[in-house]
Amino acid sequence: VQLQASGGGLVQAGGSLRLSCAASGRTFNLCMGWFRQAPGKEREFVAVISPSGGSTKYVDSVKGRFTISRDNAKNTVYLQMNSLRPEDTAVYYCAADRTIIGLRTSPGEYDYWGQGTLVTVSS
Length: 123
Prior knowledge:
single chain
């Protein structure tokens, strides 16, 4: 499985962006997650979605602002980001988890990673 993240860019605080993660290979049976890494900080969990799309989990700081979704027919996962804040500035990565245990949030539990896309939110 190869993952390609896109959709990052520069946006003003309060604005919106939609990130996409296109997969080559089957991902319909995998949990898919988004993580982010700000300069000088560790990579942190943002959101995860179950294989069917019926279950999701978010880090508290993005609840109510970000929405993760997927289109299994297109092998694509999305992260809709609204009401963006300067503290959301980071490189965003999509990842896939082969182990169907649950909605996991640790980067070390994910098996496949995209290359990252930079999101910059100006104040």
